[in-house]
Each structure stands twice: as structure tokens, then as C-alpha cells.
Amino acid sequence: MIADFQDWAKSRQVRIETSLQTLLPATNIAPVRLHDAMRYTVLGGGKRVRPLLAFAAGELSQADEERVTIAAAAVELIHAYSLVHDDLPCMDDDVLRRGKPTCHVEYDEAIALLAGDSLQSLAFQLLAEYRLADTPQMQLEMVKRLAQAAGSRGMAGGQAVDLASVGKTLSLPELEFMHIHKTGALIRAAVMLGACCGSGLNEGQLTSLDHFAKCIGLAFQVVDDVLDAEATTATLGKTAGKDAENNKPTYVSILGSTRAHELAEELRSDAYQSLEVFGATAERLRQVTDFIIDRKF
Predict the structure, then answer these.
(1) Distance between CA atoms of 233 and 96, rounded to whole angstroms?
(2) How far apart are CA 131 and CA 219, in angstroms?
(3) pLDDT at residue 71 above 80?
(4) pLDDT (tens digit, 9 = 90+) per residue, 116-155?
(5) What's the pLDDT score for residue 45?
(6) Residue 203: how many other CB atoms lie within 10 Å
(7) Looking at the 3D structure of the chain, how many domains does it have?
(8) Could you tell me if 280 and 194 are in contact, meaning their C-beta atoms sit under 8 angstroms apart?
(9) How far apart are alpha carbons 178 and 253 in whole angstroms?
(10) Residue 138 lies in domain
């Protein structure tokens, strides 16, 4: 079963990488330096967790993989843009991402800012350019979901809370609020967009799927905090210990390492329970859940 998942995940990672190579502007198209920075940021790195979740959710709704590929690419472009902006000196001021210099280090701050802006707009261009759902109403719902996940009530809002929380002691509910928005919103969007590319899921099933995605979004961040505290820079491909160095509240700083590990397991159990309504058809989502929580980088 593990080998089966590894083969499945690798094929989808290759699929999304190939698609992104095609969908991103070529470097021989002006403005060359901007397009080069966009490709530098997106290609050749990352676990592609959000696309994997989209593909797995798409299997539940019997979605066409061509549709899911475009939706997953849109989500990944939003994720990549957020990393470019998060790494800027005015935000987290980091110099290493996915084992190579961050975009503003490799190019400059202005190009990095524009690359992030351009990746975000390209994501929504894809959602408008391709037919991804059975009805126009559902496709508009997909656009709405991704916009909300990326905006002030999602990822950008969570980052604002994160920046305002440096040096402060947050309660666990306050920390969860931050990460439901900063990290969880886009993960939830990936799951729901993948499902929306198909059909056949009723309202109750979609609610269960969204709860699953909420659990996984929080679990992803808990594991991220643990890895930041316990793993090395070489393993992570980004600067380890950055949260503690910057005095940022994390699940490890609030709960301690042991309790943070336990919380990740509790979220795994909750996520599994949310998938019970789907039976064996949700096996890929269970496997991606394990991939997220058991990862070492």
C-alpha cells in the first residue's frame, strides 16, 4: 500500500510539474527577468502537498484529471506567490527556500514582489480560462473559494495576524485562528477545488470533506512547527529554528514538543473520522493525510 501511494504521488507530482512548466510564461517572452523569476519560484521544488490533496479529493467526485490538474496548478501558484512575499525583508526576511536562495535574494525585492503579484493573477486567469466544472455556477464557486482562501479572510489575513504576534504569547485558540487562516485556508481550498471538478457529492459529504480539510490544514502547521524546532536546515531546505529566533508563537512554544506531536495525532484521527462517510473511496485522502503528518521535511 505504501509503494502504491508513492507511485501515485510521484505520478501526480510529475503531472503538476509538467503542467506548471507549460502554464507559466516562457522566459523568452518579455519581460524576461520577471518571467524567469516566476519560473524560478515555482518549478523544481516543493512537496506539492496541495495538488496531491486536490487530486485525491477529485477521485471522490470522479473528476476528470485534466480539470483537477488546472485547479491544482492554480492553488500551487497562489502558494508559491505567498512564499515569495513571506520571504521578503518586510515579512519573514528569509534567504533560503526549497534548498536555494529565495526569490528576492536571487533577483531583487522589486522583481520578487512583482513575481508574487503575477503568480497570483495567473492563478485566477487559469480558473477563468479553462472549463473546470460541470456548470458555470460551480466554476464561479471555485473562483470564490480560492479568492477567499488567498485574501484577508484567509492566507493574507493569517499572515497579518502572524506578523502582529511576534514577541507575544498567544493562547491555543488564538494560534489556531491564525493558522486556520494562514496555512489552513489554502489547503481547504485545494481539497474543495479538487472535489468541485467532479460531481456526485451531496451537501453533507461536502461538509465532511471541508471538516477533513480543516483538520489537515491545522495538522500541517503543527508538523511544520515541530520540524522547525527539531529538524536541520539541510533537511528542511529552509532556515531551521527561524520561528524561535524571531520569537514567534508556535505549537511547540505554546504546547511543548511532546504535546505538539500528540495534537498532530489527534488531528489525524479527527480527519480520518470525517472521511468515514466515504468509505474505501477516500483511501487516497487517508494516504495523503499520513504523508503530511509523518513527513520529515
Answers:
(1) 9
(2) 32
(3) yes
(4) 999 999 999 999 999 999 999 999 999 999 999 999 999 9
(5) 80
(6) 7
(7) 1
(8) no
(9) 15
(10) 2-293
Inter-residue contact 82 to 187 (CB < 8 Å): no
Residues with Cβ within 8 Å of residue 17, at least 6 apart in sequence? 43, 44, 48
Cell representation of residue 235: 533537511
Tell which residue, 161, 116, 114, 121, has the closest CA to residue 143.
Answer: 121
Burial (CB < 10 A; 0-12, 13-18, 19+), residue 137, is: exposed
Taking only Cα atoms into account, the Rg of the chain, rounded to an integer number of angstroms, comes to: 18
Task: Dig out the grid coordinates for 30 from the structure.
Answer: 518579455
DSSP assignments along 63-105, one per residue: --HHHHHHHHHHHHHHHHHHHHHHTSTTTT--SEETTEE-HHH
Q: Tell me, what DSSP letter sits at residue 180? A: I
> Where residue 134 sits, what CATH number does that domain have?
1.10.600.10
Q: What is the pTM of this model?
A: 0.94
Q: Where are the beta strands (DSSP E) in the chain?
A: 96-97, 100-101
Cell numbers linked to 233? 536546515
Query: What's the pLDDT at 235?
Result: 67
Count of all residues that appear for the chain in the document: 297
The answer to whether 191 touches 52, Cβ cutoff 8 Å, is: no
